[in-house]
Design a protein that fits this description.
The chain contains 6 helices and 8 strands. The chain is α/β, with parallel strands linked by helices. Bound molecules: zinc ion (ZN).
Length: 201
Amino acid sequence: MRAVWGIAVAVAVAIGGAPAAAATVDVVIQAGHQGRPASCAPNHVHACNMGASNGSDREIAWTPIVADAATATLRAAGYRVARRPADYPERDTARIYIAIHFDGADPACSSGTSVGFPATTPHAFVASWEHAYLPRFPFRFVGENISTNEEHYYGFRKVDAPKKMLVEYGEITCPAQAAWLRPRLRDLGRLTATFAAEQLR
Ligand SMILES: [Zn+2]
């Protein structure tokens, strides 16, 4: 068996480090930027984007709070969740993939909330999220796929799922939006979980 094991390890190393432990789950929740910059080099990430900040709040600190609340809510309801950081070697299979981000803008307050999704994701899925969130978010809805980074988000390539979406919950660099978002991070996670659970029924 030693020779066979050696080949297996060689193959795993060749495709990107440690042997993969890909998950087959209901939902993959990714916290944007979490784990960087340490995760970039081992995962061959060249554009090691650390996320937005406003001097006192950092996107990289907020996204895990939202992601953990969404994950806990979904797991409590009996759903299988793979909770992922920014960079990881596994390729998961899921029914829904959601990436969690907050936007930064210059000039401040020129942005707001937005969503990104690949062409394979049904628009009705994205529209359902907008229906859930936009009435609650008292600032600007910037739109869908407002940048190539949203439509062609690298995380979309790391999961096989019929429904994939990146959510920018608001603009962290806008003081009014940050003040609204800051005490609501867990609520945003629970809202995201409720939305996902409704889509899974
Ligand atoms: Zn981000």
